[in-house]
Here is the input.
Amino acid sequence: MRCLNVALAERSYPIYIGAGLLGRVGLILPLLRTPRIALVSNTTVAPLYMDVLVKALEKEGVGVTPIILADGEAHKNWQSLNLIYDALLASRCDRGTTILALGGGVIGDLAGFAAATYQRGVPFVQVPTTLLAQVDSSVGGKTGINHPRGKNMVGAFWQPKLVLADTGTLRTLPDRELSAGLAEVIKYGLIRDLPFLDWLEANMDKLLARDGEALAYAIERSCANKAEVVAADELETAREGGRALLNLGHTFGHAIETGMGYGEWLHGEAVAAGTMMAVELSRRLGWLCAADVERVRILLQRAALPVTGPDLGAARYLELMSHDKKVIAGSMRLVLLKTLGSAVTHGDARHEDIVAAIDRCCHE
Ligand code: NAD
Ligand code: GLY
Here is the structure.
């Protein structure tokens, strides 16, 4: 088992990574205020992994209320959130109840937002079961839901008490979802960890073959990067850089997800195409060279990720991007690369360069 710490003073918490951790409820028990858990999952993950967790918890005298939602990004909305509140109230969950998310990023974001808001906040535990959730969404405390006009537009920062990433659960993950997670893994290499980018190039075949050691290393290294960034800028308020850098490709990617309808493009797929747009724009600014752009394209393609975006038209991209949370007082700040392994936030890209980068990455 690998263990990392997210250093946030009194809200610090551990991330445990390893195979077979689902049954290790001894890691969860000391965190519970009362022996009561509301377990939020979905119709795909619950039949696979809920039993082992619930049985282990019940053996230790913990009462579990399962709350099983419909599966999919299209359900990351108010209706699902309300179903969680309804179930919590119907089962008389109180402030001592811990909400536990068992699933991918959709369940983690929804359950986390419910934990942040139910009775003004209850303890939260993340048990991520997708690669994307194990390397990114379960760490750092961003929770929330989508709005028809924009991704993750309603939410809260609410840190978990613990992240328990059982790498054994990745065995049942569909190939397309594994690739989606790799988009966020590659992101860490691109924004701040060039040696990790080199490692990913050398080990992509092992990751795609689900080699346990390679996956555990990639998850640990990703979480270590994310933990450092979050510890330095938890609420994404740094004027330059900071936590916003974790959003490489996301402003373009969120436009793809919203523009295509939630669930059509997976989050990681949209991030991959969006990353190509950010990389192409960085080349137009003279920061990256053509060989750098090619290097990123090849790695994303090797991870079976899309490198061209849907042809929504640049005007529609820009309209959707104008809702991004990094837009402040009308100014759009994009995450771009100065070099491979070094990202910046940049608010001065010329309109025609942004349009050209989008066009190029929709038509190749
Ligand atoms: P997801 O939660 O939709 O899961 C992907 C699919 O895999 C779903 O169908 C799910 O039921 C299924 N699944 C989950 N675990 C499985 C397993 N072990 N075996 C088989 N199937 C399994 O998608 P995701 O990629 O995990 O997360 C994407 C979401 O995360 C997006 O909504 C995105 O906005 C959000 N996100 C949040 C953060 C954050 O910091 N909070 C960061 C990145 C992404
Ligand atoms: N996924 C971006 C962040 O957590 O800030």
